[in-house]
Amino acid sequence: MDGAAPFSEAAVARLAEERLDHRFKGLPPDAEGLTVGALAAERRPLFTGGFTTPVLTLSSAALDHNLALMERWSAERGLVFAPHAKTSMAPRLFTRQLAHGAWGLTAATPAQVRVHRAFGVRRILLANEVVDAAALRMLAAELDADPEFRLLTYVDSVRGVELMNTALRAAGATRPLDVLVELGVDGGRTGARTEAECAAVADAVAATDTLRLAGVAGYEGEIPEAGPDRVRAWLRRLTALAVEFDGAGRFAGVPEIVVSAGGSSWFDAVADVLGELPPLSAPVRKVLRAGAYVTHDDGFYRRKTPFNRHPDQGGLFPALRLWAQVVSRPEPGRAYLDAGKRDAPYDIDLPEPQVVRSARDGSVRSAEGMRVVALADQHTFVELAEGAELEVGDWVGLGLSHPCTAFDKWRLIPLVEEDGTVTDYVRTFF
């Protein structure tokens, strides 16, 4: 499998053949009927090329920087990277992540696995326990159809193991499904709460012929009142569990032992603690799953990124920007833009005005003195400090917080050079 292509180049290339129509907001209306590839070849300017607001854009330079930084950072620490692809669900970004050293991709749901497989992704970590019989039939069929496909999924309960075993046996699965026992924490998200419960789950796996225990995993990002000490203490429980299972012979017969953790807020702690793992009976695959790094953001992850704690190691750049136009100035100190909850994430922070492009002369200035105070379905409410000026027709570039809830609002996103030239389009599948 190591010599196989990590994705289907043909399937990704076919994205350029899709015809443009009413499904894709923000794109030039006069591009109707063109293929995505034909429009990309025109290299239209974002502001004068017929794009309509609101329009979400991706910075090509920021993407390049972020991909290269995390490739280097992970490799230097002996980690393999399976970025959580739920962030973008964008095959063009998947391919760039895989080309920049990603070992595989992480999915959250069987539906996301189907998207990954449609584009030929060869290694997938499904970071959930799957108990739906129809989904398990699909996973078994994918494994049976492609001997080079590697799938890992979570188990965190004896009952879950029973349901998985029943469904896989009914499906006539011929390859065992590799599973990782998930360790959780009281008050957190999923995962068995105690080591004794984890051992019971592992025993249940061993009693089946449809599942194979391949390692341990978990997610440190939902630890209540998470801080460095609590996160590292939980990570050491995870690595100790791997050592205990290995000593008990629970990993007998697997070619490698997978130990996986790591969202986008604590991957520095993950690297440090997984680096403390002693040699085990088989090679250890230390898998980091952070996904938001690819675009970073101007809010939640700007505050949470581990690079804030280690500025000497570099830093990620925000790649997402939503452009909206001023459509109303009905009272002093208030402006309204033509973007809203249908276009921008608002689950953690409101958008942040960053730059203004004048409708009169195309000049660009800082959005200093401007603050988003609310979003309606299709309007952004901007409060203006004294001296801050906006005119109807001006374009406002908004920084966004939480990329996971930005991508899902857009089906085709322009990729923009620093001079505003649109060079490609990123298709999402939500």
From TrEMBL:
Record carries keyword Transferase: no
Gene3D superfamilies on file: Alanine racemase, D-serine dehydratase-like domain
Keywords annotated in UniProt: Lyase
Pfam families found in the cross-reference section: Ala_racemase_N (PF01168), D-ser_dehydrat (PF14031)
Domain of life (superkingdom): Bacteria
Domain D-serine dehydratase-like: 319-417
GO molecular function: lyase activity
Protein family (similarity comment): Belongs to the DSD1 family.
Designated name of the protein: Amino acid deaminase
Native organism: Streptomyces albireticuli
Origin organism lineage: Bacteria, Bacillati, Actinomycetota, Actinomycetes, Kitasatosporales
